[in-house]
From TrEMBL:
The protein's name in its UniProt record: GNAT family N-acetyltransferase
Annotated N-acetyltransferase domain residues: 10-150
Pfam families: Acetyltransf_7 (PF13508)
Highest taxon of the lineage: Bacteria
EC number assigned by the record: 2.3.-.-
């Protein structure tokens, strides 16, 4: 594990089984990157990821991050958040330091992420803009969760 230090009253939780998935869903469904995401999709995503969370002394999950990885060559950092009322206390740095220290995330050829506004945070962990963006491609479907909801309503 990492030597990440959390402020008093907070603790790290490691592993999908330690995450409060309904709490993670409640936050993610309101984000710009996964608005409207169904609970069952979050459950599946958490189950198949290397997860890290921060909880308060009373067990409330207030932060979350997950790495989607083969634990050999590649990882993608996703769904990183700290609840607004708990920001500014070093929780994201402690959580990310602990996540990046996990054995399955060592010596990877590529570790990627996408962010709209946290470039400085991730630069502190060695992330840089794509060296060769012309080589990267994506399949992006920003309306997938809205379509799923509409199909369920029919």
């Amino acid at each position: 594990m990492s030597t990440a230090t959390l402020p008093g009253g907070y603790a790290l939780r490691v592993g999908a089984e330690q995450m409060d998935v309904p709490a993670v869903h409640a936050f993610l469904t309101r984000t710009y990157w996964s608005e409207g995401i169904p609970l069952e999709v979050v459950e599946r995503a958490v189950r198949h990821s290397l997860c890290m969370g921060v909880v308060t002394a009373d067990g409330e999950q207030v932060a979350f991050a997950r790495a989607i990885t083969d634990q050999a060559t590649f990882a993608y950092l996703a769904d990183v958040y700290v609840l607004p009322e708990h920001r500014g206390r070093g929780l994201s740095r402690a959580m990310l330091s602990a996540l990046f220290a996990q054995p399955g995330l060592q010596d990877l050829r590529r570790f990627m992420l996408a962010t709209r506004d946290a470039h400085a945070l991730y630069a502190g962990y060695g992330f840089t803009p794509l060296a060769r963006p012309e080589r990267m491609m994506e399949r992006h479907d920003p309306q997938v969760y809205q379509r799923l909801a509409a199909n369920r309503a029919d």
